[in-house]
Amino acid sequence: MAYTIAFAGKGGTGKTTLAGFTVDYLVEKKLGTVLAVDADPNSNLNSVLGVEVDFTLGEIREEVKNNKEGVFPGGMTKAEYLNFRLQQCLVEAKGYDLLVMGRPEGQGCYCFANGVLREATDKLSDSYDFMVIDNEAGLEHLSRRTTKKVDLMFAVSECSKRGIDAANRIKDLIGELKLDVGELFLIINRVPEGGLTEEILDTVKKYKLTLAGTVPLDEEIYDYDNRGVPLVKVPRENRALSEYRKILDNILLPRIEIHNKKGQ
Question: Which residues does UniProt call coiled coil (predicted)?
């Protein structure tokens, strides 16, 4: 099975950016085949990566929902048709593939789209060495179990007590739902020049969250984002990117090495 890295956190913390940086990191280091999964209905991961997406899993939901007669092309069953369309959803990029959940048109429950996504990730996990999942904002996605197993989850917070509170709720929910999450680490993103305050550090300690590291607030990343430039094009010497890649060097790389040894 693929080694799965997932990102969770409330909206606006920058988790999609960090997920994109992680995909780029894995590809650059040639650690294995990578599947990037945008599990957020409000899809943005492709913009961070600079990839065009023509078809999403949300559109599958609409097709099946609108197929009142239950008759699919070529005499395919519903399951066969879903698998066929799933293959069309995969976007082949340079060094990785991308699968996007997308936003279903109109109103309606996301349960079916989430079910399709969960089945898709389960099927595809054996075909890749790594799966990087950018989850939707909030906590609801955890109860929907986008994937059945996560090896490493990063709870991403901005530099605020509310953000740390949200990260702690993620930790609690993982325990309550008995989710199969190997390890959970906190990343505090967009940290101002003065660094973490004593209040923030005390809150992290109180909740017994394991802090993987911090990523500084960076105007260059804002500038790239505002101009619509894929964030993976940010120069390697960029301070925020450099600090985040140090986190991956210290946290992710050793665990990949252990994972690979177990698989031998």
Answer: none
Give 236-248 pLDDT, tens digit per residue. Answer: 999 999 999 999 9
Task: Using alpha carbons, list the distances in angstroms from residue 69 to 58, 64, 74, 230.
Answer: 20, 10, 14, 42
DSSP character for 249?
Answer: I
Alpha helices in the chain (DSSP H): 15-28, 45-49, 57-66, 78-89, 111-124, 140-144, 161-176, 198-207, 219-226, 239-247, 253-263
Tokens 């949300």 belong to 58
Cα–Cα–Cα angle for 35, 8, 202, nearest 5°?
A: 140
User: What one-character DSSP code corresponds to residue 208?
Assistant: T
Q: What pTM value is reported for the model?
A: 0.89
Domains of the chain: 3-263 (3.40.50.300)
pLDDT tens figures, 61-91 = 777 777 777 778 878 877 777 778 777 888 9
DSSP codes of every residue in 57-108? HHHHHHHHHH-TT---GGG--HHHHHHHHHHHHPEE-SSSEEEE--PPSSS-
Nearest to 28 by CA among 40, 17, 20, 16: 20
Q: How far is CA 87 from CA 76, 98, 127, 130, 156, in A?
A: 15, 11, 13, 18, 31
